[in-house]
Amino acid sequence: MIRRNSTLKIIVLGFLFLASCVTPRHVVIDPDNGMQTDPAIVYGVLSNGFQYILMENSKPEDRVNVHLNVFAGSMHETNEQQGVAHYLEHMLFNGSEHYKPGELIEYFQSIGMDFGSDANAHTSFFNTVYDLSLPSADYQQMDDAFVVIQDYAKGALLLDAEIDRERGIIMAEKRERDSVSYRTFKKKLAFELPGSLFSERLPIGIDSVIKKADRKLLNAYYDQWYRPDNMALIVVGDFDRQTVLSMITKRFSKLKPRTFFLKHSLSTKWEEHKGVKPFYHYEPEAGSTDITIETISWEPFETQTPDLLKKRTLNHIADSILQNRLSRMVSKQTADFSEASVFSGKYLRHLSISAISAVCQPDRWKQGLEQIEKTLRQGLLFGFTQTELDRVKADFISSLEKQQNLAESQKSSDLSRKILTAINQKRLLLSPKQRMDFLKPYIESISLQDAHNALKETWAKDHRLVLVSGNAHIAQAPEANILDVYKNSYNDKITRYEDPESKKFPYLELPFSKHGIKSRQDNVKDLGITVIDFKNNIRLNLKKTDFKKNEILFKVCFGQGKKSVPVSKPGLSLLTERVLQSGGLGKLDTDELYQSLAGKEVTMGFKINENYFSLSGSANPEEAELVFQLIYHYLNDPGFRVEALDIAKTRYQQQYDSRIRTPEGIMRTTGDLFLAGNDTRFGLPRPVTINQYTLNDIKDWLIPYFKSSPVEISIIGDFDFENIINLASTYIGAIQKRQSFPIKSINTGKIYFPEGEHLELKMDTKMNTGVVHVAFPTDDFWNIRQTRRLSVLSRVLSERLRIVIREELGETYSPYVYNDPSMSFNGYGILHMVVSVKNDSHQFVFNKIKDIINAVTENGISKKEMDLALKPVINHLKVLRKTNSYWLNSVMANASNYPQKFDWSGNMTDDYKSITRDDLILLAKKYLNNNRSAIIYIKPETHKQ
Questions:
Q1: How confident is the model at residue 263 (pLDDT cuts 50, 70, 90)?
Q2: Domain 758-940 falls in which CATH fold?
C-alpha cells in the first residue's frame, strides 16, 4: 500500500513538473549570438515552451504563410519505429479533432487553397514541417488555420481504418522515390558515415515497419515528440501583429505534453576516416558517372555567430574560385567531364563536408578523377590569383546589394521559408540590410592569403574519400583501381594556375545612323502597356510596375521557335538551345563574358520556345544600359562554338541514357512520339541522330532569324520610362532594318492522334514501378475560352483520381491530370491522365480510370466539385496578376504576332469566374471518349527486388 502511494505521488509530481516546464528544447533565437536579429521579426515563447516567430509583410497583400516546425524527424525514431515520423505526417491529414477523415483537404480547397502547393508537409532527418499558404489574412481564416495547426500539434485521431488505408499510399510513395540517385545516395551515406545512425534512419522508413504500423506505434511517437516545448510556429504575411499574437495565445498556450519526455540519445557520430578510401557503386541505369573527392567529419551542432558567418562566407568565396576554374575547363573543353561542382559546409547538422565533384562519360572517369584532383591540389598548393579573387568578391557583393535592393519586395512565402531554414540550421536571422552592412566590408577586406588559408583549412582533414558511382563498369578490383588512379595523379607535378586574358565588354561599335520611332501607343487596352514601334521594325513593349522594387525583367522575342525546325532534323532545337546557352558571344565565350560582367546585377539566357526564340533575364534598373548592350551584341554577334556543341552532345547523351530507364523519361523519348502519330518533331531522338548535327546545321537554321526576323523587346518593372526609351533609341535604333510584323505563319501540317491505340513501353530498371498514361485528343491553345475550361476540367479529373485511386484504393501516391494544348500545330492538344502504379496493377488502375471517365460523361460534375477545383485557380490569379513575370511572359511576350494576348489578360479573371459546371460537362462529353483515348503502359523490363 505504501509503495502504491509512493508511486502515485511520483506520477503526480512528474506531471506537475511537465506542466511547469517552460524552456523550449530547441531555442530558435539566441539573444547572445553576438548580433541583433532582424528587427522586423517578433519572437516569443508561451508559458508551455511553445515558440513563435512573426513577421509582417505585405507582398502579396492579404496573404499569410504559416509553418509548424516540429523538432523531430526520422533520427528520433527507435529501431521499431523506422518510418513512423513520415507515416505520422501523412496521418495528420486523415482525421483530427476538428476535421473528420477526408474533410481537411476539402476545407483547404473550399477557401481557395491547393493541396500540395498551398497545404503540404515534409519529414526530414531532424524535423517535420507542416505548411499552409492562406489565400486571405482575415481573422476567421487565420483563426481556422490555427485550428488546423493546433490539430496537427495535438488532435490526431489516428483511426485504425485510416492507418490501414494510408499504408498503400506510403508504399506507393516509396516506390516512386526509388531511383538511381536515391539508391546511390543510400550507398554513399553508408560509406561516408560507417556505423552511424543516419544510414539507418532514412525518412521514408522500411517496409517491415510500414506494413505493420498501427495506432499504438504511431501514437507513441506522436505523444513523445509533438509537444509544445518541441515546436515552433512561423507566421509571415499581411496581418496585424497584436491580433495574431492573441490568436496564438488562445490556440497554443493550453497545449500540454501528453507523456513524460524521455531524453533521446542521438547517435550522430561514426567511425572516423583515415588515409585515402575508395568507394565504387555501379548503377547501369545511370546516364553518366559521378566522381567525387571529399573529406567528411563530425562537428557539434552550434548556433551561428558573426564569426562563423564570416567563416562560412570566406569558405564560399574560396569554393567559388575553384568552381570558376572548373567551369572554364568545361566551357573550353579542356576537361574530360561535362559538369563539375565544389562545396564545403554543414549538412545534416553534424556533417562537415568539403567536396569537389564531376560528371563524365563512363570511359572517362580516370581522366576526370585526375583533373579534379589536380585542380584541388593546385588550389591547395598555390592558392589563387588577384583577378580570380576580385571577380568572386565583386559577384558576392553584387548579390548582397541585390538582396538589399529587393528587400521591400520579398514575398511572404520566400521569407517564411528562409526563416524555417534558419531556425532548423541555427543560422542568424538577419535582414538583407544587416547582412549587407556586416558582410560587405568583410568581403572587401579578404586577401589572397585569407582565401588560400580558408581552402587549406576546409581540406585539412587527414583523409580523402574518393568516390566513383554511376554507369562506369570497372570489372576488376574497382576500389584498388580507383585508389591507383588517385595516387598516381597525386604524385604528378603541377604548376600554378595562370589567368586567362581579360576581355572587354561591350566591344561592338554602334553605327552612326539610327532608326527613329515610327509610332507610340500608350495604355494599350487599358493595361498600362506602352507599345513603341521603331522604323527598323523592332517593337518595344513597356509596363512600369511597383510589384518588385529595384528590378526589371526583359524578354526579346524573334523568329518562330521550335515550329520552324526543319522536319528533316528532329531534335535540332534541343541541341541548339544548349549550344546558344553556353556559347556566350562571338568574341567572348561564356567565361569571358561572366568575367567582364563581374559584379553586375544582370542575367540573360537564350531559350527556344514553341513558337519563338527568346533572350530573357533580369537586372537592376541602374544596369538598364547594360541590358540593351547585351541585347544588341546577342542579336548581332551570337556565340556559335564547337566547344559548346561538343558539350551539348555529351550532356544530351547522358540525360537520354538516364531517361530511358524512368517512367517520365521514356514518356518523353517514346510516348510523346506515339501520341503525335510518330511525327518526328515530337519525342526525343536517339543520341545517334543528335550527334550527326554540325555547327553549320545550327547556323543555317538560326542565323536568318538573328539577321532579319522582326524583333519584339518587352520590359517590365521598376524603371525610369524616359531613360528606357532613350536607351532603346540608342541601341534598338542601331539594329539593321528587319522584316515587318506579324511573322508569316509556317504551315506545320496535321498531327494524327492514335485514337484507340495501346502502347506498352518497357524500362530496363530495378524499380518496381510503372505508369498508366491515358490520353484524350482535345484541341490547340488558341480558343482561349475553351483552353481555360479544359484546364479546370483537368483539375476536376485530377481530384477524382486522388479520391478514388489514391485515397480509397491506396494504389498510388500522386496521380495527376493536365491538358496540353499546342501553340504551333492546329487542332492538336492532349488531355493526359497519369497514375504511377506497382508492376502488376496496370489493368486494374486503367479500369478505374475508365470508370471515372464514364461517371463524368454519364453523371456529370457536381457544382461542389467544380467550385473546389475553381476556387484555388481564382485565388492564385489575384496574386499572379501582381507579378512582373505574368505580365512579361503571358501578356507582353510575342504579342506582336499574337495581339489577342492583350485581350486575354483583360478578361481572364472574369472569364474564369464565369465558368459553370455545364461548361465542363459539355467539354467532358466532347473530348472524354474512352474509345478515342490512347493508352500507354510503362513497365519495368524485369521486376527485381
A1: confident
A2: Cytochrome Bc1 Complex; Chain A, domain 1 (3.30.830)
How many C-beta atoms surround the C-beta of residue 523 within 10 A? 11
At CA 185, angle to CA 184 and CA 189, rounded to 5? 120
Cell output for 38: 532582424
pTM over 0.85: yes
Q: Report which of residues 212 and 3 the model is more confident about.
A: 212
Length of the chain: 945
Do the bridges between strand 337-347 and strand 351-360 make them parallel or antiparallel, or are there none, so unpaired? antiparallel
Identify which of 635, 630, 627, 634 has the alpha carbon closest to the alpha carbon of residue 542: 627
Residues 870 and 857: their CA atoms lie apart, in Å, by 19
Distance of CA 191 to the CA centre of its chain: 28
How far apart are alpha carbons 637 and 584 in whole angstroms? 9
Q: What is the DSSP letter of 195?
A: T
C-beta of residue 591 within 8 angstroms of C-beta of residue 328: yes
Q: Which residues contact 696 (CB under 8 A, 6 or more apart)?
A: none
Residue 508's SS3 state is coil
What whole-number distance in Å separates Cα of residue 833 and Cα of residue 507?
Answer: 52
Residue 550 contacts residue 621 (beta carbons within 8 Å): yes
End-to-end CA distance of the chain: 58
Write down the architecture of domain 2-252 according to CATH.
2-Layer Sandwich (3.30)
Q: What is the DSSP string of 110-176?
A: HTT--BTTTEEEEE-SS-EEEEEEES--SHHHHHHHHHHHHHHHH-B---HHHHHHHHHHHHHHHHH
711 in Cβ contact with 558 (< 8 Å): yes
Cα–Cα distance for residue pair 710/735, rounded to 1 Å: 11
User: How far is Cα 733 from Cα 511, in angstroms, rounded to an integer?
Assistant: 10
Q: How many CB atoms lie within 10 A of CB 400?
A: 20
Q: What is the pLDDT of residues 432-489, one digit of tens each?
A: 999 999 999 999 999 999 999 999 999 999 999 999 999 999 999 999 999 999 999 9
The domains of the chain are located at: 2-252, 275-490, 526-734, 758-940
Structure-block grid coordinates of residue 214: 498501427
Q: pLDDT tens digits, residue range 163-218?
A: 999 999 999 999 998 999 999 999 999 999 999 999 999 999 999 999 999 999 99
Reply yes or no on domain 526-734 having CATH 3.30.830.10: yes
Helix (H) or strand (E) holding 940, with range, is strand 934-940
Q: Would the pLDDT of 53 be above 90?
A: yes
Look at the domain 275-490 and name its fold. Answer: Cytochrome Bc1 Complex; Chain A, domain 1 (3.30.830)
CB 119 within 8 A of CB 112: no
Q: β-strand 128-134 against 119-123: which pairing, if any?
A: antiparallel
The reported pLDDT for the residue numbered 942 is: 64
CB 770 within 8 A of CB 907: no
Q: Looking at this protein, which amino acid is placed at residue 100?
A: K
526-734: same fold as 2-252?
Answer: yes
Backbone angles phi, psi at 357, to 5 degrees: -135, 160
